[in-house]
Fold:
Amino acid sequence: MRSALFAFALALFVPCSHAQLVFAAASLKNALDDVAALSPAKPTISYGASSALARQIENGAPAQLFISADLDWMDYLEQRKLLRAGTRRWLLGNKLVLIAPAGSAVKVEIGPGFPLAKLLGDGRLATADPNSVPAGKYTRSALEKFGVWGSVAGRLAPTENVRAALLLVARGEAPLGTVYTTDAAVEPKVRIVAVFPDGSHPAIVYPAALTAAAPASGPAADFFAFLASPAARKVFGKYGFAPLH
Amino acid sequence: MFDTLTPAEIEALRLSLKVAAVSVLASLPLGFGLAWLLARFDFPGKALLDAFIHLPLVLPPVVIGYFLLVLFGRRGPIGAWLEHAFGLVFAFRWTGAALACALMGLPLMVRAIRQSLEAIDRRLESAAATLGAGRWAVLASITIPLSLPGILTGMLLSFARSLGEFGATITFVSNIPGETQTLPLAIYSFTQVPGGDAQAMRLCLLSVILSLAALVLSEVLVRRANRRIVGDAH
Amino acid sequence: MRIEIGLEKKLGAFTLKAAFSGEAAITALFGRSGCGKSSILNLVAGLLRPERGRIAIGDRVLFDSASGIDVPAEKRRIGYVFQDGLLLPHLSVRQNLLYGRFFTQPAERWADVGRIVALLDLAPLLERRPHRLSGGEKQRVAIGRALLASPRLLLMDEPLASLDASRRGEILFYIERLRDEVGVPILYVSHEIEEVVRLAGHLVLLSDGAVAASGPLHELMSRIELRHLIGRHEGGAVIEAKVLAQDLGNGLARLAFSGGELLVPDVDALIGETLRVRVRARDVSIALSEPRDVSLLNCFRCRIAEIGAEPGASVDVRLDIAGTPLLARITRHSAERLRLAPGKEVWAMVKAVSLDRHSVGYT
Structure:
């Protein structure tokens, strides 16, 4: 018994190999898990807000592949020379949608000055933090474009990441929310009310890159390549992600 | 770095203090009641109750936040009833942040108070009864004064925990400046923005100062309370 | 005021089944440690509930299992002086003293603060905190506190047990004062016969959770068959005597009782005062004829009333000095040699020196 305990304790000190630690934006969860299941390399994937993940990489997190939900955070890491040069490319696209709880009957067309504040009533608009999380930033751009940002800026429920905003709407705590179409697809308790037109916000692009810590060839690079394969694209497409080149 | 605080920072500070204070004061009767129950009685399910009270200590704060959302959100069974019966709303309000803090701090409060209750010589309460004191009089004139050090310690621990509460709060009531953006949430927000490091650091320093002040104050108060009970010159 | 008590309760290893009643100023409950004395006090005070029984103080019934009466402890108006005082540590002496008074209805407050404080000499202690009091001071405060709640009955649980010898005398004095000057009946628990003899008018002897005997002190003290409960070493008759004269030159006092006169050394009492003198059986010798040229000062002509029957080297003899009983403990061998038998006229001798300060009590 004692030797088993000793072996266990020793094992805790053996350095884990982070050969395949992937950091990915929260909104990729369902799709990327399925892709990983198909790939020969079995990576460990950590999901979170792109802002949080980028910060972690900046502070030394041993991720080898980073898939961000917007360009800003990828730029952020590139400026700090934390990416492996030449590996960055656009991976996927997405759409921003306005959602409501599944049982809600609300109807609206998104256009200049659309009555968002009125539709909220005394509730709040659930959205990822507009200051830092990509989904929130896209939301702000879009609402500013349509001139309604001022009327709802004080009526937000800013969440830690886009999936948390999805949760608030799914539970009915927020009458409306903004998430990616891919998020709405996996949550049966919400329905899409309207889609934000592509031009109303910077293109929603998921860039991906190997980090400076990753070797040029190896399991991480292999997985990265697999993400562009037809099998992977089929899975992404099933979830609603648009493939990009 | 040491300029005066911006309005947003003052807002976060004010909110943190308000939320922490309200959470401690509001949870004190429940905390004392639970501690008293656990210290004085044996009943079936006592171990289960004890374990339940300690859950916020061992579960991830996000889980607690999720449970709060499910139960106390406007659509939650308890939240809906509270809004209907008393007009009390927790969702997206500072009251929700206070509720999250109260729940996270409760196990610390109950432990501290229970310990001090168990240390009281029960015969003193019997003596008081023979002198004519009824149950409530004994509670007010003997039990509470003699357990005061534990009560103060419990309050302080809960207060300090509240000042640092993040996971349950952001999950339950999100990060609304001026309403639910307490100091920890504000610090987190700054760290998520490129170039927000300096501000984050300022607020961290502020948090440390606040916590130290609370600690020192509690030491002073507890020592004074002990002196009152046991007597000086020891 | 008459106290009527009947209690039955299972206490761990044995069952307590006690019943007694009395009307004296102090009723003493005496018995070995563990016989249930303190439990009786807790039951009377309402801190424990009997399984069956009846407790009545004067005309007030506090507990009656037959009719379902059970007055809660805080309403019984029974003061309790605990063995270790149990003063409230977070309050000053003054606050402790007034604690019970606060809960007493003004109409029921017979205890006068000034008088009780003076009675127990508490004035210099008022602003102190309990942890700064000596053992004796704590007990005095405890007594004062119980009295100031204006109780109808005062319970005292071995109040002298945690004090050292010198302090005991001091507190005993205060309790005697209390008995004589304040009108509250007292139920006093002790396992020291000396205290009981000095204080009690009525004695209840307990043994293994049951009342072995209950009655006036003098009577029980002179019954041979109860000696084993009282203690072989310390038992003996109690004589009430009045001080006739004080021989200050020799330090002797002459006390008169129904059977004659007692000479007792170092008695601090005035002429006319009544005292209780416990004559230990082991200090009484028997002679067939009047002793001459001996150092003994106290010799009495008396009649043998009863000779004890227990086996062993010693035997108890109850003597009757014109109505006053006296117990003597002598060897069986001597009793046979002198051919002692009930009815025989003999002489009883008591050494004056054996009547020390532990034997004399002031009423």
